[in-house]
Amino acid sequence: MKLIWILLQIAFLSTLTIHPAEATPDKKSSIDFQAAQQNFIQLAQQIAVDMGRPLGGKSSEPGRSTEKASEIEKTLPSIEPQVKAPPATPAAAQSSSYHRRSNSYATNPDSDPPRYVRQLSDIGVPAFKDVNWLDIGLEHRTRYEWRNNDIRRVEGGEDNPIFLRNRAWIGIKNILDPFRFAVEFQDSRVVNNKHAITDQERNEYDLLNAYGELYFKKALGADDRGNDRPIRFRVGRMAYETTDRRFIARNEWRNTTNTFEGFRLNLGREANDWELDLFGMQPVRRLQTKFDEANDHLWFFGGIGTWRKWSDIATIQAYYHGQKQTADPNGFTATNRLDRQIHMPGFRVYGKAGDIFDFDVSYNHQLGYTGPNRVDAHGYTIEVGKTFEHAWKPRIGLFYGYASGDKDPNDNVDNRFDRFFGFARPWSADHYVIYENLKAPKVRFEFQPTQQLGFELGYGAYWLASKTDRMFDILDGNISNTVRDPGFNRDRTGQSGDFGGHAFEGRIRYQPIPRVNTILGYTHFTSGEFVKNRIAASPHCDGGHAHPCVDQRSGNTDFLYFEVLISFF
């Protein structure tokens, strides 16, 4: 694995222009991506000439443009413009796909490659209209946040951080088939943040994707609708999302991104009536100012089977995920320093009951051990919704999510559900809860007056499934490699109660021009008895206690943010 990774790094870095003055041993190198793209295109053109193949040959993937247009719609919060169909029977190509999106909130994975990536022939430059073997992408996001008495922190008051994230993608396909490869760069930073910076906010100059793959387009023939059923084997570093994003996600909201090193084998593809996805990977440690590296103490593995034959009514996904961790004596958290093994079988079914309502249901059970304790945990989600026949596409959705918590800290059984590498939103817009020790009913209403403008309103409440377990991300209880958990987010006696609080959320999404998306959001959280009691029980900052200590406050918070996302192609 390490040899493959070294070869991928050499192949990538050979195309980049690096500023020597900034390439210090403990800081990540600054990369000139404009020069890199020019070098990469020249290299690919030379390969094409050497092979005696014409540049700009027709794509071997019919319907590719239409498929990409469908993929663009998958990811919230973007509102994407309508894509003009290519002249060659696009409607037939699109309707032949078995894939159907879920209407449940924010559960559709980002496309592969990501939504901001375009085929060079599709960017609107006449000189590149036939270059369909090169994928490129360049994206910038800036988000300003105002947080008042944020309960994720032991320190109250106001915070006004500004998050900056840049991404770039280069990928080669078709021209060297069956060999393909891609590289995705990301630089994540935060400024004006009064708290200690963690790996959830900063990860300078690093790679999210750097992989090679073998892609055999017609290896398994075709399905009943004529869609090619390929085999794809990918090796290297990978950042991607799958199923409903609750266990494997890129974490689009967060300023930094989950990624893995290992392999992924796909039999079939999204357009087919069935697909099998097998993987074995090591999560990558995000090192804020050094090059990221794989976690040699942890393996993440599993398989996902998807059945789409009846997708107009229901798509069925059955899967198994597993984690095996060997104890790291130098691990940052107590959990890192344990031998752990978790096995999770699960399933998901989503679809539409005609024009009456849509649905998305999942169930997962976890077994294994963590240190000396046996693991026995489970979680499930249920969402039903209705989209009304109106030009504004109004939709109302009802959601309930449950994840077990540790019932008894002294019984040698760990009942805390593990979200693996899933996303935190939309469990809680302000990131106070995740898919762990949770009972969360929600109602959400959304409508879209125009193609460019959308509104969302929601209300949610949060109870602890077990009042003797923790509420994950409050009072510096977050899992990061920077801030140590002082233990204020759990009451092992259960005397603090089980009601975490409730929140009103709202978002306005506006797309002024096709490649620019903006979001204005606000959340007001009203604390419940558990949060109030944990604040009251923690050391007072004005009482002469050594740090850490908690500002005594009500626990009610306000969160306002404004985000601008720019895709340059």
Kindly describe this structure:
By secondary structure, the protein is mainly beta. The chain has a single domain (2-567), classed as Beta Barrel (Porin), CATH 2.40.160. It has helices at residues 2-13, 33-51, 64-72, 90-95, 529-537; strands spanning 17-18, 31-32, 118-119, 134-148, 158-159, 162-172, 179-191, 203-216, 231-238, 260-267, 274-285, 293-294, 298-307, 314-325, 340-353, 357-370, 373-387, 395-403, 413-414, 438-450, 453-463, 499-513, 516-527, 557-567. The strands form two sheets. It has an 18-stranded antiparallel β-barrel. Strands 1-2 form a two-stranded antiparallel ribbon. β22 (499-513) and β23 (516-527) form a beta hairpin. Residues 1-26 and 29-94 have low confidence and may be disordered.
Summed up:
By secondary structure, this protein is mostly beta strands.
